[in-house]
Amino acid sequence: MATRSNDRPLTGRRILICRPQPDADRLAERLQAEGAQTHCLPLLERRPLPESPERRTRFQELDLYQHVIAVSPGAARLFVEQAEDWWPQWPVGLHWYGVGSGTAEVLEQAGLTVTIPPHGFTSEHLLALDTLRQPTGERILIAKGRGGRELLGQTLADRGARVDNLELYERVCPDYEAATIASALNDFDPDAVIVLSGETLNNLIALGENTDNALKRRTLLVPVDRVAQTARERGFERVFIPEQLTPEGLIECLGHLD
Predict the structure, then answer these.
(1) pLDDT tens across 75-114, in order?
(2) Alpha carbons 142 and 205: distance in angstroms, whole number
(3) Residues of the chain whose pLDDT is less than 70?
(4) What percent of the chain has a predicted confidence (pLDDT) above 90?
């Protein structure tokens, strides 16, 4: 492996990025700027759901909500694209939230003022915000994908809020040829694999377990403790959780790997 320097801390690192697009390519550019070699193998694909009368109503009534939460960058992008068809100017008086800085950035680029947890990037951290502690009687819209964790909406409903889900996409595992998987794992031979959801981890195992004999010995970067625990239970030996899931946080974690 090439010698790393303080100026380019990832020189010589081979990093496999399993995030959905376009996030994978954007992260790859940042890691390459720090000296890394990268290979993108998105293991989740976000497929927009068809329009429905219920969704149209949610957008038409956007000004009746007190809080709007986007749970991922993909949810934020689709929300902005579709909401702007109904609201050339955003309604006033809404509180906007992103679960993590990447999600917030998408909303901010649309001209919105966004609140994120000061520490952490999970639903649990968002639920600790003062403005969401006692939302009794308030309307909350959650922009999300189909399925996934229900903790956020259920907890807010238990606190007395009227919660509506705005399902914008479904998550599917891409259908790759065996040669594509082998190229990403065996030929590229990554020093670390970035796997930022439990579903992505499951897809990595399903697609790579019979292709890569070294899969369980590869270093994984995962988002939270529950995904790390699943990875260890499935036999992975080197599992790390970055302090932040920003590009800077991932670079910091990757730069300190043995």
Answers:
(1) 999 999 999 999 999 999 999 999 888 899 999 999 999 9
(2) 30
(3) 1-6
(4) 82
Nearest to 38 by CA among 25, 28, 30, 27: 28
Is 47-171 CATH 1.10.10.10? no
Assigned CATH topology for domain 14-44+175-255 = Rossmann fold (3.40.50)
Which H helix or E strand runs over 69? strand 67-70
DSSP three-state, residue 184: helix
| DSSP category for residue 93 | S
Write out the residue limits of the CATH 3.40.50.10090 domain(s) in the chain: 14-44+175-255, 47-171
pTM: 0.79
For 112-169, the DSSP string reads: --EE--SS--SHHHHHTSGGGT--TT-EEEEEEESSS--HHHHHHHHTT-EEEEEEEE
